[in-house]
Amino acid sequence: MLRARFLLIGALSFALVLPLAPATNGAPSADLVRVRQEVEQLQEDAAEAGENAQAAKVQLARLKSQLSSVQQEAQTQKASVDAIRRSLASIAVARYKSTGLGEGVELLFSSDPSLYLSSAGSLENITRKQAAELRKF
Length: 137
What we know:
By secondary structure, the chain is mainly alpha-helical. Helices cover 85% and strands 0% of the residues.
């Protein structure tokens, strides 16, 4: 009798739980299909994000290399500008020290006026070239 009672309780429990279980007819449910599609989309998005990250790394490396080249060029130009400035400064100091009386008076008292004019012309040409180089920067 006890055994019959357990069988009856088991059968009733099974009868009550059976309608709550999802019906499976071999085809996946609409929710399962939707979830699979979302997972596939997320995987595609992740792959695309990975590719974009790799492309960004490559571009960053290229830009760092380009920045390094530009910085080296700037240092080279700065050194050139500094050298020209020092040269112009020494020329200006030398001219200031040597022209106490003025160029016209120095020409008048020069022992060799043609040499003085040639030197003055050469100095003027050098000064102009260096000033033009300095203006380029």
